[in-house]
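Worked problem 6 (solution included).
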Amino acid sequence: MHDMHLTKYAAIAAAFTLTATPALAQEVTLRFQHFVSPASANPTYFMQPWADAIEEQSNGRIKVELYPFMQLGGAAPNQYDLIRDGAIDGGWVIPGYQPNRFPEAEALELPFMTTKSAEEASAAAWEFTQDYLMDDFKDVHVIAAHMHGPGIVHKRGDAVDTVDDFAGLKLRGPSRPATLLLEELGATPIGMPVPQFPEALSKGVVDGGVITWEMSPSLKLNELTDSHTDVAGDRALYNLYFIWAMNKDVYDAMPDDLRAVIDANSGMMASMWAGRAHDTGDIVGRDVMAADGNQIAEMSEDETARIKALGDTVTANWIVEMDAKGYDGAALVDAAQVAVRNNTGD
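Solution. The predicted structure is:
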């Protein structure tokens, strides 16, 4: 008799556990991954505050865990596929790390396309993304699309002063438009994702490369390079396009009220937030390089004009190439320019 009672209680307990499960299933943990130091600008000023906002606004029912340095596995160039396939719940993607896969996004990355304000450039990026790229990214749920601040030339030895100084330099580039520009400048471009850059510098595989101020401290560019050069004027030498995205099935499976929390921290506001993170980090990064006694330089307006002319060649060639692929290259360039104008403060 005693055993029967135990069995009955066990059955009741099991039944209770089963009925309690649906309520517990509403508690969601999202694992988001990126490929840089948690101390760099985007994780510090956007990803972590974003994760905190999601947790707070969901009353703790959504927890966002951030994994730096690709800790959940895979390589930075494959991040889009990791999100699409559900290997991770979400993360930070540089579409340009897979050349020719998302060609329309390159319009925003062309030379001198964006202003040096990452916040403005990111507002333009979200606008352009809505009009041209959502079909490209239909396999994931896009939360934000953004750009970084101005791309800076970092190198060993003296700063580049003229276009001629680029001749023969082996320089790391992040994307196809950036490497096309470096090639036009007479450098030897070497495309590589950011995690590989410090080692390539320390081993002498490259003489330098182009990247932002904000990434410089976490990559130890104050130690690995000697000079840092920007172009004159208010336009960025080049820029890089990013998306912050999550797995579509994971997003769709969330209860409506929790999806609404994600939605409230998505779109234009999140894109501009991510851009502001880079602007903040750029100030910090530049100060770190200067404090270490490295040379901080700006090319003259005349030399910048020479680079702009070469940049125009890159853009003209890109239009021809896009037309050959069945896109309207000129229309994409125009649309990117309009998006930038629409979101520029002046």
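Discussion: The first strand starts at residue 28 and ends at 33.
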